[in-house]
Specification:
It is a single chain. The protein has 109 residues and is an alpha+beta fold. The protein is built from 3 helices and 6 strands.
Length: 109
């Protein structure tokens, strides 16, 4: 999952968890379209010293024929917030990738 790549400070690994066409709504930062823009966002966050994300109160709900919606609360070393909607879908190669992601930073720590 992108969570493990982020905790490893690996922006490219984070981005690899998203489809090429993914749209990420990172509130309040903006909307990032495509894997390259998403990788650049995560690299910027990592470069600012953010690390150690942890999800709690995680729920998974089936979505369509081949996907799931994840919602959760999250904390990291410098911020906290919520995952409104991570839409994971199975790909033709058998992997699961994010086809959309919506999360929000709600405060600093």
């Amino acid at each position: 999952m992108a969570l493990f790549a982020f905790n490893g400070q690996d922006a490219k690994g984070c981005a690899a968890q998203y489809t090429q066409e993914c749209v990420m709504d990172a509130r309040p930062f903006g909307i990032f379209e495509g894997r390259d823009a998403i990788e650049n966002f995560w690299q910027g966050i990592i470069d600012q010293g953010f690390s150690s994300v942890d999800y709690t109160d995680v729920t998974w709900e089936p979505e369509g024929d081949n996907g799931y919606i994840l919602t959760a609360k999250w904390t990291m070393n410098k911020a906290f917030g919520v995952v409104h909607k991570e839409h994971w879908a199975m790909q033709s190669d058998g992997s699961a990738k994010l086809i959309s992601d919506c999360f929000e930073v709600q405060g600093e720590r």
